[in-house]
Specification:
globular; 13-stranded mixed beta sheet
Length: 463
């Protein structure tokens, strides 16, 4: 087939805005059934796009520090690096996930923290455990990584557990570092007329990180609201679909909200405040925060001003697209936190993370011949190849065929009174906030760790 001539920018802009107008006043765009034409989509499955391991080495380093404050700061370093795709790239619209669709990867790269990280390697999401240590005055550096010269494997699986509302469950495991993470992903979106406000859906309670070798400390990281702006400034689609349009437009992600990190076992909590744009509209991308002692049985502090100075053990400041720092207070800090801050100036800033040299680490997925029909890349393969070849009419037709097949299967389940159940997770929305793996899910993760990608076909597939 001859590649189609892409529609000009003004035509795509009109198409995009005509679709958005339908959602003015709609409480949640994510809950409405609608299908975008292929030329407005980025050729990547939703389940592949939404993962929090852009820098896996920061994730596996969370449990390394021997003190509670160090581990909380390491958690924040992971938090600020997990979405580098927005810092280094541009927002895009991936394919909507089909019920029962799943994606798995065993993150892999033997890489150096201080090198440019764009090369691909022949190992699976194997990451050299070399994120810089979190050094605190008066605290001896942890010896947790003295014997960790080789690459470390991080396995990840996610499955679309519900189609209406759209919800997916995910699970991350790194046995070598005794760390796991899990959660439900669900977004709620509202078009305000000038931007799209994106918040967490009711089943999305954040990311839950568990450190098994730290007496199963669990950290809950909640998501702030974000705004997708620039829709009415210039050409938004240039950045919505960066590989499909030139020149780039002005679509951007801004964050202006509070989010929280809590660890009941260590009784430490973080409040992060993402600062709004300035009054002239200039994006600041600033974030301020505090790490403080709290009572898990009376967790009622939600604003920075609520936190008494005597409970603060560290302050966070910086730009979430540039450099982040932590500042230790001049007052003494009680055990198990650092026992002395005598060698640190009350306002001395310590670098938490510099995002400038960092880029998302490439992931390696099972070969397509070893993927199941409802595995993301194989499921969307024909759509992806058609978009890349600029065969948009063909891509839209194939996409509509897949969507119609989903509707037919859903109708058949209703007629036969068959209840849909996920394969890799125990519940559609349960346990609340913290999905658990089925035996099939555990087997899939173990296979990823061992480099064995073969799975028996699913007996029932939503798609």
């Amino acid at each position: 087939m001859t590649p189609e001539k892409p529609a000009d920018d003004s035509s795509k802009l009109k198409t995009f805005l005509s679709i958005l107008r339908r959602f003015i006043g709609v409480a949640d765009m994510a809950s409405v059934r609608f299908s975008l034409p292929a030329q407005l989509l980025e050729p990547i499955p939703n389940l592949e796009y939404w993962n929090y391991l852009d820098r896996p080495e920061t994730f596996i380093g969370i449990g390394d520090p021997d003190d509670a404050l160090g581990r909380m700061l390491a958690t924040l370093r992971f938090w600020f690096t997990k979405d580098l795709k927005y810092v280094k790239g541009k927002p895009c619209k991936p394919y909507n996930s089909a019920l029962g669709e799943f994606f798995r990867v065993s993150r892999g790269a033997r890489r150096s923290w201080k090198r440019e990280l764009s090369d691909r390697v022949k190992c699976v999401w194997k990451v050299k455990d070399d994120a810089p240590p979190i050094d605190l005055p008066g605290v001896q550096r942890s010896k947790a990584r003295e014997d960790s010269d080789g690459p470390v494997t991080i396995s990840y699986i996610t499955e679309q557990t519900s189609h209406h509302p759209p919800v997916s469950a995910f699970y991350v495991a790194c046995p070598e570092k005794s760390i796991t993470a899990c959660g439900f992903d669900q977004l709620s979106a509202r078009f305000t007329g000038t931007s799209i406000r994106v918040t967490s859906g009711q089943h999305n309670l954040g990311i839950f990180v568990t450190l098994q070798k730290r007496d199963n400390e669990q950290y809950q990281l909640t998501h702030p609201a974000a705004h997708l702006g620039g829709i009415l400034r210039g050409d938004p689609l240039g950045k919505l679909c960066p590989r499909l349009l030139t020149p780039p437009g002005s679509l951007s992600v801004t964050v202006a909200d509070m989010c929280y990190v809590t660890c009941p076992k260590t009784k430490l909590k973080v409040i992060l405040h993402y600062v709004e744009e300035g009054w002239l509209g200039r994006t600041q991308n600033k974030v301020n925060g505090v790490v403080f002692r709290y009572d898990p049985d009376k967790d009622d502090m939600i604003k920075l001003k609520d936190v008494p100075d005597e409970d603060v053990v560290a302050r966070i400041e910086g730009c979430w697209q540039d450099k982040l720092y932590f500042v230790l207070p001049g007052s003494s800090v009680r055990a198990p936190l650092p026992a002395s801050n005598a060698h640190s100036s009350p306002q001395e800033k310590h670098l938490l993370v510099d995002l400038n040299p960092l880029h998302p680490v490439a992931k390696i997925v099972p070969p397509e011949e070893e993927q199941l029909p409802n595995e993301s890349r194989r499921f969307w393969h024909e759509v992806t190849e058609s978009i890349k070849a600029r065969q948009y009419t063909r891509a839209t037709a194939v996409k509509q065929e897949l969507e119609e097949r989903q509707r037919q299967k859903a109708a058949a389940r209703i007629e036969k009174e068959h209840e849909w159940r996920p394969r890799f997770f125990t519940g559609v929305f349960t346990p609340v906030g913290r999905p658990e793996l089925t035996p099939d899910g555990e087997e899939a993760l173990q296979g990823l760790q061992a480099g064995d990608y073969k799975l028996r076909p699913s007996s029932i597939t939503g798609a």
